[in-house]
Write a structure and sequence with these properties.
This protein is an alpha/beta fold. It has helices spanning about 15-25, 40-50, 65-75, 100-125, 150-170, 185-195, 195-205, 215-225, and strands spanning about 5-10, 30-35, 55-60, 80-85, 130-135, 175-180, 185, 215, 235-240. About 45% of the residues lie in helices and about 15% in strands.
């Protein structure tokens, strides 16, 4: 694998942890970025306990220009940026969503992705060795459930940014792709799925593969996208949902 240093924003989450471990397991030095160092300590220790693995931990508020600029000033050149930082999804009818809630989501999911990509583009261009940027969106960018207006808007914006940057950064050998997870079993979703068996059963029923996705499923896609085999793939939205969004049949 040609690329050796990855910056992972939002590394402390369930998918972030899985992606970090998968990249570290392939000899990539992982810079684990999050809002608080305490949330990354266990992940850092796990990576460092593996032979030939390396990691560092940094704090960043992805929605704050000063914080992002400070992050990029203190880290070495990077080959890979993984944007996983996201606000908790708002699940309410639009008439009951405050503008403050809207702004909070957009600040993290959209502005945060933009600022992290901007910093990576500057860093990768200066390094002149190309690079890979992977932004995390959601299958909600393609279609959605009721009461997800803010979340779906934010995730669609990430797809638009990804497509634009693929065109803009391609001449510098920097690929930019988006990963769109479907229903994935993570620590965050585990409680919801356990408490609402009807929701779980409905998701599984409509998924052609017959099961929900795992963190390992997502990590495998990321590993491929940063590999030499994906050097001609850019501007793409890769949906990892077991075929859920392609299945028009929701009958019993």
């Amino acid at each position: 694998m040609a690329y050796k240093t990855a910056l992972i924003a939002g590394a402390a989450g369930g998918i972030g942890r899985g992606v970090s471990l998968a990249l570290a397991g392939r000899g990539i030095f992982t810079i684990l970025a999050g809002h608080r160092l305490s949330t990354l300590d266990e992940l850092y220790e796990t990576i460092m306990a593996s032979p030939n693995a390396g990691a560092s931990v940094v704090t960043v508020d992805v929605g704050d220009t000063y914080s992002v600029d400070r992050l990029y000033a203190q880290i070495p050149p990077i080959d890979i940026l993984i944007n996983l930082a996201a606000a908790p999804a708002i699940n309410r009818p639009i008439e009951f969503i405050s503008f403050t809630d809207y702004q909070h989501t957009m600040r993290t999911d959209v502005a945060g992705t933009f600022l992290m990509c901007q910093g990576a583009a500057r860093k990768m261009k200066a390094y002149a060795n190309g690079g890979r940027i992977i932004n995390f969106s959601s299958y909600h960018a393609l279609g959605s459930y009721p009461n997800r207006s803010v979340y779906a808007t934010a995730k669609a914006a990430v797809v638009g940014l990804t497509q634009q940057l693929a065109v803009e950064l391609g001449p510098f050998s920097i690929t930019v792709n988006a990963v769109l997870p479907g229903a994935i079993e993570t620590p965050r979703t585990a409680t919801t799925l356990a408490n609402d068996t009807g929701l779980r059963d409905g998701l599984v029923h409509r998924t052609p593969t017959g099961h929900l996705g795992t963190v390992e499923d997502i990590a495998a896609v990321v590993v491929f996208l940063v590999s030499d085999g994906a050097k001609h793939i850019t501007g793409q939205s890769i949906v990892v949902d077991g075929g859920y969004t392609k299945n028009l049949y929701a009958g019993r």
